[in-house]
């Protein structure tokens, strides 16, 4: 009903671009951050706007340098989408890199009536600049690099933009030891991507074995802070601590900035570590398609995979300590 062919037009005449990022994921935003910088660098007069969630607005406005941020709640109704499209007004190009767009996505794009729609859902007539097949299997950052190429930026610098907050650094520093620190983030999205205590204990033991003079910071989220503090007490060693003042993703960024190395099961933390050039061990479930798009994309990164169970179930806790030992044996730290 809403999937009508876009008007089309030459991308060389693009004066205003709208990027839809209302999924509001930190990792996705970090990985695509260079897109805005490079587009503005090579096309001084182009206007680049973004639609995202309210809690992500400051990052795009203050650090990524977009011209205007439109905020959208998580589940807008059709009337709110129509009003948002009216607020945005005329755009030459809309970029929406969702793999399979939902009805409300299609409706919103139809309401915008943009000259060009760039996306990965090749089956839609509305998407006239199709990136699905063209970028299949590429890292998510490469998909945005491909978009830049189509917009006349063939060789963009792809280093990520990582927000920095000096005041939060000062707060974190009050709890930070003088020794080098390996930060371990055991928490990913969903229960299947959260390390249990036994695996955290194993990682702590291996790090302190290979680097006996170093400290280990257990990172936490607001809903796991109490558990993380209990784990530190249970491990009962002076080598392990958690930053009790850490509350936000910006605090997590500052922890990573202070760290000598990072071990993480969460891709947002992995991409932030990559952007800050930190030696990194990323722990992934054996999902080939997901890994091809969201691997660390960074030469200092090492990767270990959990072992898929016989029933096909994936759980990040099915990791082999030997895989970690091999990385540490190779002089990772």
From TrEMBL:
Pfam families in the record: Glyco_transf_9
Keywords: Glycosyltransferase, Transferase
Source organism, top-level taxon: Bacteria
Glycosyltransferase keyword on record: yes
InterPro entries, A to Z: Glyco_trans_9, LPS_LOS_Heptosyltrfase
PANTHER family cross-referenced by the UniProt entry: TETRAACYLDISACCHARIDE 4'-KINASE-RELATED
Protein name as it appears in the record: ADP-heptose:LPS heptosyltransferase
Organism taxonomic ancestry: Bacteria, Pseudomonadati, Pseudomonadota, Gammaproteobacteria, Aeromonadales
């Amino acid at each position: 009903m809403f999937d009508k062919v876009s008007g089309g037009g030459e991308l060389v005449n693009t004066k205003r671009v709208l990027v839809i990022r209302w999924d509001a994921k930190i990792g996705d935003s970090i990985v695509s951050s260079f897109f805005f910088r490079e587009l503005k660098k090579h096309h001084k007069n182009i206007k680049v706007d973004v639609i995202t969630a309210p809690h992500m607005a400051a990052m795009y406005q203050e650090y990524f340098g977009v011209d205007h941020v439109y905020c959208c709640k998580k589940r807008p109704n059709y009337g709110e989408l129509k009003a948002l499209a009216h607020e945005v007004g005329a755009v030459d190009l809309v970029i929406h890199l969702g793999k399979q767009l939902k009805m409300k996505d299609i409706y919103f794009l139809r309401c915008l009536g943009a000259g060009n729609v760039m996306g990965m859902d090749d089956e839609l007539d509305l998407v006239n600049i199709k990136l699905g097949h063209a970028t299949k299997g590429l890292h998510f950052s490469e998909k945005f690099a491909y978009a830049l190429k189509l917009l006349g930026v063939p060789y963009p610098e792809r280093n990520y933009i990582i927000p920095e907050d000096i005041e939060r650094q000062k707060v974190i520093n009050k709890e930070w030891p003088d020794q080098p620190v390996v930060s371990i983030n055991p928490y990913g999205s969903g229960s299947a991507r959260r390390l249990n205590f036994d695996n955290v204990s194993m990682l702590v033991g291996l790090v302190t074995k290979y680097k006996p003079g170093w400290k280990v910071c257990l990172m936490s989220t607001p809903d796991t802070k109490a558990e993380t503090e209990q784990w530190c007490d249970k491990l009962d060693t002076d080598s392990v601590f958690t930053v009790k003042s850490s509350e936000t993703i910006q605090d997590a960024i500052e922890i990573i900035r202070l760290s000598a190395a990072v071990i993480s099961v969460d891709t947002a933390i992995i991409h932030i570590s990559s952007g800050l050039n930190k030696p990194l061990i990323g722990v992934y479930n054996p999902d080939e398609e997901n890994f091809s798009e969201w691997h660390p994309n960074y030469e200092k990164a090492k990767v270990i995979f959990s072992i898929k169970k016989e029933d096909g179930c994936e759980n990040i806790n099915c990791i082999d300590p030997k895989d970690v030992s091999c990385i540490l044996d190779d002089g990772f730290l």
